[in-house]
Amino acid sequence: MATFAAGFGSIIFNIKQIVQVTDDPECLFLRGEDMGKIKILESENSDLAVLVDVDGVISHIGCNSELKALAKSTKCRESVDAEGGCLVPGLVDGHTHPVFAGDRVHEFAMKLAGASYMEVQQAGGGIHFTTKKTREAVDSELLESLEEIGVEMLKAGTTTLEAKSGYGLDTETEMKMLDVIEMANAIFPLEFSATFCGAHAIPKDSDEWLQTELIINEMIPRIVEEKANGNMTCVENIDVFCEKGVFEVDSSRRILMAGKSAGLRINFHADELTRLGGAEMGAEIGARAMSHLEEISPAGIAAMAKSKSVGVLLPTTCYMLRLKAPPARDMIDQGVIVALGSDFNPNAFCLSMPTVMHLACVTFKMSMPEAFVASTLNAAYSIGRSKRIGAITVGRQADLIVLEAPKWEHLIYRFGCHAMVIKHVIKNGKVVFSKS
Ligand code: NIG
Ligand code: FE
């Protein structure tokens, strides 16, 4: 049985709906039909309350009078009146590239005029453009820009995110990016799971083989060394852009396996623009997660369902690049654990998970409960945190959003209007954002 700290830290009361997602403290993900059956508590007269202990852990879920009395007797420090709104778990963004310098607004015009993602990249733009700018930036500039992005993410309800390097492509800049994420994790109220993505593109003065060797023989050993010295504690995952003309399946497998041997979780870009068999390879080597998957094959779907690899789907990228949608319905129906991510990056400049959920419902044909599970419990599972976050249960961390709306679905339904709906954001039991 869980033991709780002696005093209570905060109480949230007058709640109409609590979207628990699951009420099972041991449930680490939902898949198949279960994704559509999220657990919701409801009280017509808003008589629901949640009590959080001094360590930021949810200790009780009950009614107002009972929990207010408990809070009073234990000198609860913070009290949040939900005023008849809803309480939902903090959102988890399963895929982001938030550390970079410069922008690519000029490329948006090129893409609108018909240039494909790879055409822009092959002409020296895309990731190459951002890499040049990011190499030139000092870490304080990158941290400042990340802070600006992080604040907007928090306001949009994100309390935890996966965050990649990948705009350095040389050892020095890749380490600089990972250090910036580490600093942000220490000082921002957001929680980061950092991903080493030195295999995001092939630098112009290199080739697939040389970059693969550099990553395996220099970059990964540097991360291992840093970790042994107590640094880069939030670097947890390894990523590769597994794509035709970038890192093909064999090099991707070598890099990912080297990362796995170094203790990193495999979480990579697969089958986005070309059906390469990335999903089959990822399932075979025990990937925790694979992203994009627009071109996944039926065999890839079956392999992912069997291996319990999470499919992290990215609606903003499909929308921006006018790609065909990934087969989200087939994936869910066949038992793949589906998560969502914003893919926030200079190509797809969207950091709002409520917008991502809306797009997933309309363009990927997911239901609102499925999109919500994908942005909470399942995204938390993709970064190894679903025992602690992603649902509202006694014993889980109090990462919460108070919604100014009578039904939780307003968070998804009000397209591009999350600022109207999100009233308070709570991270680890503390209010970190309140609408003025
Ligand atoms: O997930 N596909 C590769 N990586 C990113 C885009 C990065 C960029 O264009 O800067 C993605 O969409
Ligand atoms: Fe990406």
From TrEMBL:
Enzyme class, UniProt record, top EC level: hydrolase
Pathway: Amino-acid degradation; L-histidine degradation into L-glutamate; N-formimidoyl-L-glutamate from L-histidine: step 3/3
Family under the similarity heading: Belongs to the metallo-dependent hydrolases superfamily. HutI family.
Gene Ontology MF term list: imidazolonepropionase activity; metal ion binding
BP terms from Gene Ontology: L-histidine catabolic process to glutamate and formamide; L-histidine catabolic process to glutamate and formate
Organism superkingdom: Eukaryota
Protein name, UniProt field: Probable imidazolonepropionase
Domain Amidohydrolase-related: 87-432
Any one Gene Ontology cellular component term annotated for this protein: cytoplasm
Cofactor(s) needed: Fe(3+)
Protein keywords: Histidine metabolism, Hydrolase, Iron, Metal-binding, Zinc
Any Pfam family matching the protein: Amidohydro_1
Catalytic activity: 4-imidazolone-5-propanoate + H2O = N-formimidoyl-L-glutamate
Enzyme Commission code(s) on record: 3.5.2.7
